[in-house]
Structures are given as C-alpha cells and as structure tokens.
Known about the structure:
26 helices, 23 strands
Amino acid sequence: MTQISRLTGEFINAEREGAFQEERLPESRRHARMLFLFSAVMNTLFLASDWRFAGTPHFWVAVPARTVIVLCSIACLMLVRKMASFRAVERYCFFWQAVVAVGVAFLVTSRTDLALFVLAMLPVVFYLVVPTSFRGNFGGGIGCGIALLIGYLSPAPLSATAPGLIIGVLTLHCAMWIAITRTNRLQRQEWTASRVARSAQAALVTNGETLERMFRSVPIPLLVTREGTVIRFNDAAAAMFGTGSDISDVHVLHDKSAMLTTLRDYIAAGEDVDNHECRIFSRGSVAHDVLLASRPIVIDGEDCILSSIVDITHRKEAERHLAHLAMTDALTGLANRSHFMTKLAQVAGSMDQSRSPGKAAVVLIDLDEFKRINDSAGHDAGDAVLRAVAQRLQQVVRPGDLIARMGGDEFAVLLTRLNSAADLHSILDRMTSSLHQPLTHGARDLDCRVSMGAALFPDHAEHITDLMKHADIALYEAKNAGRGRACLFEPGLLERWLREARMLECAREAMVHAPPQPWYQPKVDLTTGRIIGFEALLRCVRADGSVIMPGEIAAAFEHWELGRIITERMVSQVLRDCRRWQDQGIDFGHIAINVPGVELHDSSFPDRLLDHIRAAGVPTGRIELEVTESVFLGRNAEVVERSLHRLSQEGISIALDDFGTGFASLSHLKQFPIDVIKIDQRFVRDLETDPDDAAIVRTVLNLAYSLGIHTVAEGIENEHQLDYLKAGGCHYGQGFHFGAAMPAAMIPALLGCSDNESSAGQIA
C-alpha cells in the first residue's frame, strides 16, 4: 500500500514523489508560465494604478517595488523553457515568490483597503497557484504572509486591530496548510489510481492479446459456436476442418448411438461433454479418434459453447498395437496364453447364454523331444520348428478357430462350432497328419512329432479351468502312452490322474517325514537253496512305525524330479550298505536295484552311477540293475540302449523285470544286454490253478534257456510253486516263501545262518 505523509500530503518515498513530480512536469511548467504571465500583466496594470500615489511619499515606494515585480515576472516567463526538471521549476518559482513577497511587502505599507486585501490574498495564491512542492507552497505562503504582515504593521503606530490581524493571518495559514495537504493527498491518490488503472488496462490489453495468440496457437482444435454456427476457431481447427472451419460435413460416431451425427449438431445439443472418446469423420471420410470436450461460455453477453477436440488417433493406434503385442506371441505371431484364456472365457460365456447345442473343444499340443532338437540342432532350429508348427496349424484348422502358443513348446487350439466328438476326431486326425510331416531346416531334416490332449465343452467340463485341466490330463496320457498321438479326455483319465497326484503328494510328504530306504528281499538259488543276492526294495518308514510301500508312490518313480531323487537316495544307501557288509567280510552276493525310465532316458545316468559305485569302493559285479520293458519303448530307446550297453560293459548285470506284462518285442532280448529275466509274480501266483499262467511260465523258461539267459521267479509263496519252477529249469526265486524284505540291519544275521546248505533249506 502506498504511504502518504499526514503533514504534507506527499509520498513518503522520495523516489515515488519524484516520479509523481516528473510526470506532472509539463503541467507544472504550463502553470508556471501562466502564473508568470498573469503576474506580469496584473502587476503592470497595478503599476499604472500606482500613479495615483504621485506626489506622496508612498509613490517612491510603490512604483519601484511594482516595477521590480513586473521585471521579475517577465524574466521568469522568459526562462520557462529552461525549466527542464521539476527542481528547476521549483527554483524559479521560489525566486519569483521571494521577489514578489518582498516587493508586495513594500506595497502594503500604505495600509489601504487594497493592501489589507493583498495581505490575505497573496499568501493564498502562493499556497494554491504556484506549481511547486509542499515546501514551496507552505514555505512560500508562510514567508509571504510574514513579509506582508511586517510590511503592513511596520509603519507606526500599531493599530488596536493588529493582534486580531495576526491571529487572522495565522488562522488563514493553518487553513491553507490543511487545504494544500488534503489537495496533495487527493492528487497523489488520484495519480496512484490512474497509474494502477493504466497498468491494469495495459495488462488487460496485453493479456487479451496473449490470450488471443494462445487461442490461435493452441495445437488442439478449438471451436466457439453459437446456435450451431462457428463464430471463432483457432489455427488447429482450421487445419483439421478447413479454412472456414465449416463443421457441417464432419460426423461423430459415439457409443451412445450407432448413428452418425454431425459435429455441428452434436455440439449444438449443449450437453456438457468431458473427455468423451469418439470417432469423427472429416472431409474425405478420414477417421480420427478424438477426445471431445464442450463447455458453455458467455462472450459479449451471448451464450456460446467452447469445444476442444484432441486428436488421439496415434495414441489409439499405439494402444491397439500394444494390446496386439500383449496378446500375441512374438516368435510365431499366434495368440499367447492370455489371449487364449480370454477368448476361451468369451466362447464359454456365449455358449452358456445362448444354450447352443454346439460344442467347443480345447486341444493342447506338446512337441515331443523338443529339447533334443534344441540341444542337437541349436536354438535356431528349435525356433524354426515352432514357427513351422504354427504355420501348419493355421493351414489345417478352420477359419474362426483360435491357435495360441501357450509357452515353450506347448500350443493350444480352441475349436468352436463342433456338432459332436466325431468332428473333433476328424480335426485331430488332420492336425496329427500335418504336424508329423518331416521338416527341413537348412540342410538338415528334423523329425517333428507332437502329442495332443483334447477336452470338449461342455461334455467334459462346465468351467474353463476344469476344461484346461482335463485337456492337460489327456495330453499327459498321450505322452505316457508313447507320445506322437492324440488323446481325448475321459473320466477314467481324471481318476488315474488324481490317483497319481495323490501318489506324488504322498511321495513328497515321505521325502520329508519318512525318507526312502532300501529293505532287502533275498534271492535264492532254487537248485542249492543258497542266498545268492538281494533285491533292494523301497520302504518309507513313518515315525509311528507304519510303512509306505512302493505301490503307494508308484507315480513318483517316473516323475522327472522325484524319480531322480528317490533313485539317488536308494543307490547311495545301497552302496553304503554294500560297503559296510564288504568291510565286515560278509558275502552278500549281489544287490538288484530298480531303475526307473526317467533315469535311463538321461544319457548322463551311466556316468553318475559308475561314479557312485567307484566312490563307494564296491565292485560293479555286486550290482544288478532291474529295468522294465517300458523303457525300451518310445523315442529314447537309443539312449536306453547306449546306457545299458555301457553299464553291461562295466560289469553290471541287467535284469528285465516284470517280463511278459508289457509290450516289448522278443527282439529286445537280442538288442539289449539282458542277463536276467524276471517272471512277474502275477504269473507265478496262479501257477497251480491257471493253465494259461503255467503255459506262459513254461514258455518264458524255455525261451530264456534257449537264449542262455538266467531266470528269476518273483512271488514264490509255497512248495508247489517252488517245485514247478524247479522242474521247469528256473534258476532263482524270491518271495515270502524265502523271506520278506527286511532292513539292512537284519541282513548280517540272516547271512550268518545261511553258510551251509541245511540252513538254506530252512530258508527255503
């Protein structure tokens, strides 16, 4: 807030006061000129009237004094042009005041009525007319008043009214002080207000120009419309809609209506629109995705609408591109898992709502031996296989069916518009035939085979989560059944899967609370009755003494992780037991260890096993590996063959377990280094009552005899079975007739009482 002195009415701040005076300099100079001119003219007239004092003593006082005043006024009038600053004006005015005050002081010595009038009037002129500062006005007025009062009262004698005259003069000067202080304050307040007003006006003009420039240069199209007519528009609007910004041909397609509405009509509707996404079609039917916003405004007292149109076409294209990338597999260009699951949910939902009799199906596809292709031919070949699978699937499925890469080497197909399972089988046959065609990458031929699992909606599941799980179970069955085939889900597969899942859960629990350990069942020479070795059978003993049998966790043996862990533990403990018995001088013969297919399919298994045996210091001849016929089947048969030959060459004997229960060809007995055939207990158990089982046993014994392979009969439980097997030429036997599996701690005592034939007979 500007501060003004209460005593002078001037600005307290010297710089501000100086600015005020300098701004009023032309006016002050003009007033000074008029004052000097008026003084010269009036005093010249008074000089003429002073001749009335001719012949009196006052004549020689009045005429010279008046002459000096006239000359001073003329001189000051002539010097007005040299008054280049307010200070110069003030100095000249002060000089004029001093000369006039002294001259008039001589004139009022006449004590005439006119002198009394001048005594009161001249200080008022000095106060109100002289264009100077407060000090010039007040100082000149006081000085003039004192000089005139002295001149008026100096001739003796003093009149009786002199005190009253002095008081009156003082009253006049006090009143004039108050008057000029108030006048100064009002002038400065007016000056301040005018400056503020000018600044505001200048700012308003500047802001208006700025706002206009901003309005014109905003890169967003802006339209001001009144009753549907465009009254103002900016450059961006002109660029989008044309020079005249005619929007009658621009149409809006929005979600409220499928009908096209002209932009003019849409804006003229007067609705408050806030960042409404829509599409507009400008001249030439060019489509733009835009954000439209409209607000009512008042311009020059008229109701108008200000509309902004933000072109988000590039942003929407980028969003669509990112959405496509987010829903697409980069390598194959197929849909990804997220896209597939979203589409599956939509299809299931639409079928539920429409209650259509049609069916849908999910087919999960897994590449067999994809890791082998990557390892042997490189990841470039693996990528080529994945792209080839994608292309072949696109060629065989119907339009409208969705193909997705779920991740890694797994694909999925969503089939719709199926009338029955027969339609699905037909499509699966086409897919299998196409996908199993050889693939060439560079100069190399790649064998591309797949396993597929399928499930129908809603026949096999009413929820997509269950549908995917059932298709996965079918895929699991296809891979377990030899791979390279397609399998359709059926309820029995779910029961088997749940059973295997319970087995795996039980195995994981056993690994923590009842770690696997080998129990040993004796193998006896049927001719001599002597113990020639043992089979290490897995047992998991709980803290309460209960035992988990192998059949309860059978699925774990072929599990890629649990199977290896169980085998590692069994082998390690068997070798420790063998080493301990060996150090104790106990002749335990050999120990047969069951090896699952998950290990034999790993080419590193022979080296790992031999390293364990060497580290334990156990002769390889003490170890026998029992394998099932299933390991000879499938695409890893060559790996199994190399592994078994390697182990056989190192002195480890190979036993074919559960012979006769699988699908192995007799040629496998020649292809693989089989030293022992084990006759499954299912044939031995009903040997006495079932002629077919007896015939199978005789056939196996004759076959083994012809090939020079030793035989072991499992599950011998009585003398009749023993006698039959002896008569048939079976070499060895094991079963409850000789003894059940037992912990390692009991083996030394068992062997200690089997050193002679009589004790062996007791075992038998």
